[in-house]
Amino acid sequence: MVEKFKAAFIAHVPDADPAKHRCTVMTSVYELTSILVKNDDEAVEVCKELRKAGVHAFILCPGFTHKAVARIAEAVGEGASVNIARGDGPSNEAALKIMTEVGWFKRKT
């Protein structure tokens, strides 16, 4: 019997280090792990690792393309839920404005 529903939120961040930039929040029935990655290749590897650790559902940030989502879905296999967090137009514009202000798209790591 499964003890907890385990989910993971994966986000693209230009200066991320998935080994360092991760955390887990738990209740008695839910476990959410958040991990920041630099690129799609890191995301695929992280998702494989998490699936082996028993994660049931993957929530991907809006920066993932359809091709990247397909790669992750294939990597985690049948029976895993893969979802994409998407916002509406005004929400996307608000986030883009702040991300641009902090230099999100100019950083090279």
List keywords for this structure.
109 residues; alpha/beta; Rossmann fold; globular; DUF6506
Fold and architecture overview:
There is one protein chain. The chain is α/β, with parallel strands linked by helices and 109 residues long. The protein has a single domain, classed as Rossmann fold (3-Layer(aba) Sandwich). The chain is globular, with a radius of gyration of 15 Å.
Helix and strand layout, with pairings?
Elements: E1 5-12, E2 22-26, E3 30-37, H1 40-52, E4 57-60, H2 66-76, E5 81-84, H3 89-101
Parallel strand pairs: 1-3, 1-4, 4-5
Antiparallel strand pairs: 2-3
Helix pairs in contact: 1-2
Task: Produce a short descriptive summary.
By secondary structure, this protein is α/β, with parallel strands linked by helices.
Overall geometric form? globular
Query: How many helices?
Result: 3
According to CATH, the fold-level topology is Rossmann fold
CATH class, please?
Alpha Beta
**Portion of residues within helices:** 25-40%
- Please, what is the average pLDDT? 94
The CATH architecture assignment turns out to be: 3-Layer(aba) Sandwich
Structural class: alpha/beta
* Poorly predicted sequence stretches spanning 5 or more consecutive residues: none
